TrEMBL record:
It catalyses: 2 5-aminolevulinate = porphobilinogen + 2 H2O + H(+). GO terms for cellular component: cytosol. Its EC number is 4.2.1.24. The keyword DNA-binding does not apply. The keyword Transmembrane does not apply. Transmembrane segments: none annotated. SMART domains: ALAD (SM01004). 5-aminolevulinate 2 binds at residues 275, 314. This is Delta-aminolevulinic acid dehydratase. One of its GO terms (biological process) is protoporphyrinogen IX biosynthetic process. It comes from Desulfotomaculum nigrificans (strain DSM 14880 / VKM B-2319 / CO-1-SRB). Homooctamer.
């Protein structure tokens, strides 16, 4: 095999045009999904302290925010709701006039071509902050399934284009698929949070969504960050139950899982660039320690290199601007 000086890898790094020609992975606006937090009220645009640039928005302000999302060509949004009241059974999650249901109707009326994905879970709506119903001081998996499926159906009836169950209950994809199909929504895809870890990276999100558990933690239903093989088992089950897209969450510390899931199943894979990842970059950037644009684009390109087909990121608007040549 020829060796140096016959082989010089630097020849293909000669200038930007050569580097463009041989570049293996490309980050595009087409890869982005923008998460939004919607709340009741009017004229509300409340910044999340730990997530600079991310806001809790009333529906009217959300519609204003989405104008730039559409203009930048970002394909879709992921909607999280913040209710006015919470109860033991998370009834706001599946109420016909719930915050997500109202937001979806408004968004689809204002932006009919925008892809609207809804997060399906109970944690923002339960008084105890857990993702399911509590029985004997623990989350009861099977009792929760019906409410998760009911929530998904209510979102679709409101106009959601896709549902994304994040609760990590066993069997929830099958329960949702059965509920949607029985109601005639066989065409609605499911994006499953398949490998969702019990991660320390979620702290800022829990502030944004007011969803911190009031007792214990979520380690009995979210995955141990030390496990990789388990992610493959979880993903396989979701696919067998009818998931159309599978997700790895968080992304930054689990790029090996993204790669393994993609190699094992060759299925559409979504990476969730979560709140803690976002907050760390924002904090370091504000202190002048890093160049934010370079770090963000490198990180998201890394997710693509690992095998992600799409990326949920709070940086989406900024990234779309950067990719179009602005700062």
């Amino acid at each position: 095999m020829p060796i140096f000086p016959h082989i010089r890898h630097r020849r293909l790094r000669l200038n930007e045009n050569v580097r463009r020609l041989v570049r293996e992975n490309h980050l595009s606006v087409d890869d982005l999904i923008y998460p939004v937090f919607v709340t009741f009220g009017q004229g509300i645009r409340r910044e999340v302290p730990s997530m600079p640039g991310v806001y809790n928005l009333s529906i009217d302000m959300l519609l204003a925010e989405l104008k730039q999302v559409e203009e930048l060509g970002i394909p879709g949004i992921l909607v999280f709701g913040i209710p006015e009241e919470k109860d033991e059974v998370g009834s706001g999650a599946y109420a016909t006039d719930g915050i997500v249901q109202q937001a979806v109707r408004a968004v689809k009326q204002a932006y009919p071509n925008m892809l609207v994905i809804t997060d399906v879970c109970l944690c923002e709506y339960t008084s105890h902050g857990h993702c399911g119903l509590i029985k004997d001081n623990t989350v009861d998996n099977d009792l929760t399934l019906e409410l998760i499926a009911k929530t998904a159906l209510s979102h679709v009836e409101a106009g959601a284009d896709m549902v994304a169950p994040s609760d990590m209950m066993d069997g929830r994809v099958a329960a949702i698929r059965e509920k949607l199909d029985a109601a005639g929504y066989t065409h609605i895809p499911i994006m499953a949070y398949s490998a969702k870890y019990a991660s320390a990276y979620y702290g800022p999100f829990r502030e944004a969504a007011d969803s911190a558990p009031q007792f214990g933690d979520r380690k009995t239903y979210q995955m141990d960050p030390a496990n990789g093989d388990e992610a493959i088992r979880e993903t396989r089950q979701d696919i067998e139950e009818g998931a159309d897209i599978v997700m790895v969450k968080p992304a930054l510390a689990f790029m090996d899982i993204i790669r393994r899931v993609k190699d094992e199943f060759n299925y559409p894979v979504c990476a969730y660039n979560v709140s803690g990842e976002y907050a760390m970059i924002k904090a370091a950037s504000r202190l002048g320690w890093i160049d934010e644009q370079s770090i963000v684009l490198e990180t998201l390109t890394g997710f693509k290199r690992a095998g992600a087909d799409m990326i949920i990121t709070y940086h989406a608007i900024e990234v779309a601007r950067w990719l179009k040549g602005g700062r």
